[in-house]
Predict the structure.
Amino acid sequence: RIAKMIPPDPAITLKEALTNEPELSNLYKNDAQVHQLMDTALSLEGLNRHASIHAAGVVIADKPLNEYMPLFKSADEQVTTGYTMSALEKIGLLKVDFLGLRTLTVIDQTLKLIEKTQGKVIDINQIPLDDPKTYKLLSSAQTIGVFQLESSGMRDLLRKLEPERFEDIIALLALYRPGPIGSGMLDDFIKRKHGLIPIKYEHPKLEPILKETYGIILYQEQIMQIASSLAGFTLAQADLLRKAMAKKIPEVMEKERKNFVEGCHKNGVREAISNKIFDLIEYFAGYGFNKSHSAAYALISYRTAYLKANYPVEFMAALLTSERDNTDKIVEYVNEANRMGIQVLPPDINESDALFKVVDAKTIRFGLLAIKNVGHGAVESIIQARIKAGRFRSLQDLCERIDLRLVNRKVLESLIKCGALDYFGLPRAQMVAGLPLILEYSGRIQKERQKGQLSFFDLDAKENGFKIKEAVNLPAVREWPEPQLLSFEKEMLGFYVSGHPLARYAHQLKRFCSTSTSKLSLYNDEEDVKLVGLISKVKHTLTRLKQEKMAIIKLEDLEGAVEVLVFPQVYLKVARYIQPNSVVLVKGRLNLKEDAPKIVANDLFPIDEAYNLISSMKINLTGVRENLFESLKEILEASSGRVPIYLQLDSVSRSRVHIIVGENLFVSPNEKLISDIESLLGEDRVSIVI
């Protein structure tokens, strides 16, 4: 209760809150318990609440570190310095940031797969930086999975910039920040690159420094080069100028301006020009980025783009493997592989390895480790059993040969539910129902083997050439309904294998949607959209200010997923419809302010009620033979109702006219009515208004 009275401003202090909030101030004065609480909080405010540890910082010294500073161990046993970063620098120690990137593992794994599948050994340090395929991929913004370049905002920028050389990628990463975007610097850069506005240099000596960035001061290093080339600064003096620009202390800036103008004068640059150049430096310094940092990242971006463009199947297999524990990313990359013409086959107990593997130039096999609940130990046991005695012939054969201490019932159920055991030819529901019997039988055999006891089942006796073996009879169980099958696949893999729950709503998707999730980024911010989708995730929450109920929904269609925000006013009206795995029609407003598009819902209905929302229907009769009109009339009469029908015709003058039918032919819309009309007249002849 007290915490909610503190304004949600991160910069506010408790003292300011007591002054600005009358209710809190009143409680502080009149409630002894609140008074004590606030006094305690005031004394604690501002103290370090814990010891933060740098994610990648390593301190290097010439002697043991405990001779320079106190050390302590963190909760996970990491030896950590007792001094802060700035204090370490002041006592003369070297701090280096070693940043670990998952992308480096993806590159390494891709190179190994290329060597394995194609026999090529590629030195990633020697790849050409002018590869046409790579720049074609970048310019077309097909950069899902490419380091630093896969967000929707960055892909949009790639389309506009159309990079043609490595320096463009360096600049791109330096430009894609709030400062350059907000200042218009980014748009200016793109226009200059495409020759839409002229590139001017205030002095000839600026051209060799600024040519690669089309006359814009983009990098901190360029500021230092300008100071050195025009004003004769040493690199140390130029670095001091760079630091002064970043801090923007007026007295220091004035001093540096004087030094710069004087230096330029000695080199024959007029005072008016040198002042103008200093003004430019001062303006761009707020947005200047470290080029060496951007270049290092750009190199990794280029290398991943090169591998995707030239070795797509190996790259996508490595990428999927790297994100095997992230279901959302797996779904995104499987969809991207499909777009690239690469099929990702479902997991198979006899074909899959631990990781995603390349089958051929257009096919990847799903890795067993990416299945939910299946760990390293279980996968190792399965693969070793397969190497030792060949393919598994049945569920019973599998359970007898694997280590059941590692591959337990939960693992086996997950393998069944995702379809990895479909090779055995049994319904998944039957395998799950019979699993306890098989496990009991297989467990007994394994225990006897461990004790060194021989049983009838271990004898190599043969009858008619076949080994005698007792088969466990599985209960006769019908297969799960399709929605249940698909739900289990989604739960275990993150995506559907056998089909999609929305497949049977294909007609409704076409009729009621104004777009699909994959095309949302092509629309304008705040534009109205209609979307039919499956609710795959629901998060019920409260608004921060008024603590009102709202919901955040993940809505999936056949092409992807989008986040839908249902704010309190709409939530009160539609809360009963917000259920996981239900198919709904969402009408809302598009929000493109962040990287991923979102929809702010204005209304939400179950798909079964969508036909009740139709306010009118239009039938295009252009080019339709007159002998079909009577049949159309009979179809309309069979679904009599109150929704008007408009007939679209082309007149003799080729102008388009709409004629409303008589009220006796008004209809009650439903799927059968629309299907019958399209069967008679042809597809896409009916349009609806909601």
